Amino acid sequence: LTRRSVLRLGVASVGNAMLTPIPAVAGMATPYGAAVHLHPFRNDPNLKRHLVEHTDVVVPMNALKWASLRYEKRRFDFSGADEIIEFAEKNKKTIHGHALLWYHANPAWLDAVRSPVELENLLADHIEKVVGRYAGRIKSWDVVNEVVAHDPVSQGLWRGGVWYDVLGPRHVEIAFRLAAQADPKTLLFINDYDLEDDSLRTLKRQQAILSIVRNLQDKNIPIYGVGLQAHLYAERQIGIRNLQKFLKSLKAMGLVVSITELDVIDWKLPRNIMERDRLVAAKAEEFLDTVHEVVKPQMITSWGMNDAYSWIQEVFPRDDGAMPRPLPFDVNWKAKPLFETIRRFSS
Ligand code: 9MR
Q1: d(CA 192, ligand 1 centre) in Å
Q2: What secondary structure does DSSP assign to 260-302, as a single string?
Q3: pTM, rounded to two decimals
Q4: Is the pLDDT of residue 93 over 90?
């Protein structure tokens, strides 16, 4: 430990000590959450039932994105977000917010903004209104989502898109400062994907996250934790050494870790369902084991509950045309081995 890191640790833990962590259901060690897509939420009564029965945390999957809230430039539309959030509150679930800034899922009018002053004002107004509206109700926020380049080896550290292109690297600092002002008690996360395999690209992505966190801490800008999305590829090895080193660094910096979007991409697995479900669960287990050897995550959230409504259906179709099975429940709401695996880690 250097003097600098000791100082930093001090500041971070004092900062975090004033905040209360996400509560787990009585008897459960780690809260289990699920992201909720509005369409099935409205149309499949079984989804609500399973949310009530099995989750501790609810995450609006798309309803808090700019594309949903800010379809029109001059009007906020909170209807979808309110629907999910009011349901979660009624059922005493903790709510995780996703996301205040992303290069994707923005309305076309936002992506067209070219003036830094205008864009900063828009971001300030957005965060003030959105975080402010749900202050004291949304326990934690993905303040920035996927701000690291897909491949820092060839692309440099930052992800392109309206925020970076117009505001430069400071878009991250601005967003965290604003979020902390709008709700000083909400827990602020940086969230990103591809942080767990053993490639050089992933190592560079981990290093990029560390440098962003370090910069925020050096400037005394509050950040509470890092969200590992964990869209795991069944055919990729978990990079145990690099991942654990990364998690240890985060821990030393006083940050917590959440698993925010867990699912398993099964496009390269054998077609046989029993075999496939077993391998999907085994991949999640390999990952969760690796994480737990270093830190207990704040929460484990899957990116949906039921295979039928997963983004993987469209984005990672299988060559043989069989339906992907990335999530804890199958299309008939039968719990799969993945659900048991997650439960083992959260109970
Ligand atoms: O699952 C989400 C899908 O329904 C949306 O169409 C898409 C674009 O808004 O976003 C998906 O969720 C992404 C999440 O917000 C960020 N990490 C990657 C997720 C899968 O693409």
Answers
A1: 12
A2: EEEEEE-TTS-S-HHHHHHHHHHHHHHHHHHHHTT---S-EEE
A3: 0.94
A4: yes
